Amino acid sequence: MHSLNCHDIREGILSGQYDLGVYYDVGGHPHTLEVLPLGQAKGIIVASPLLAPGLRDFDTPHQRKETSFIINEPRSIYRERMEAHLRARDILFRNTIELWSLESIKKTVAANLGVSFLPTFAVEQELATGSLIELPVRMSGCIVQAICVWHKNRESTPAMRLFRDLLQASALFPM
């Protein structure tokens, strides 16, 4: 079992390196693959409640934000979606801080060092306690689809079938 970026898992499935993958749908599924939708996850912009009101608008075009965008790896689907939104509106951050730990990202944002775009399920506790707030935004691409993918022409082992059945029954990705 490997924990990797969505794009890397997809490439591993396509190349035959992996038998089965669970990841957010990044597209590019040829007819040789079976795709099982598992549910959706919503991404939201989160910030510290101390963030200045003038930095909370991510809809008005042509802005220069005097704060940081705090996110993980460059090929993260959430990062890609947020950066597409920012490019479409010509919104620039002072800088981008890459942290590879979700807990580090949440703590850095809560310390008012920037904002992030994360799945709602990952920040539920922080939203409930008030250490993070959701910033309103009119953004397409907030919803990502979780999927399980495997090759049609490969034999499915009993363990693979059981794993897929358990994933489908578990509701890991509720809305």
Query: By helix and strand content, what is the structural category?
Result: alpha+beta
Low-pLDDT regions: none
* Number of distinct beta strands: 7
Percent helix among the residues? 25-40%
Main beta sheet: 5 strands, antiparallel
Amino-to-carboxy terminus distance: 26 Å
Quickly count the helices. Answer: 5
Mean pLDDT: 92
Give the amount of beta strand, in percent.
Answer: 25-35%
Radius of gyration: 18 Å
Order of helices and strands: HEEEHEHEHEEH
Shape field: elongated
What attributes characterize this protein structure?
175 residues; alpha+beta; five-stranded antiparallel beta sheet; two-stranded parallel ribbon; 5 helices; 30% strand; elongated
How do the strands and helices of this protein lay out in sequence?
Blueprint: H1 6-15, E1 20-24, E2 33-47, E3 63-71, H2 77-89, E4 91-98, H3 102-110, E5 116-119, H4 124-129, E6 133-135, E7 143-151, H5 158-170
Parallel strand pairs: 3-4
Antiparallel strand pairs: 1-7, 2-5, 2-6, 2-7
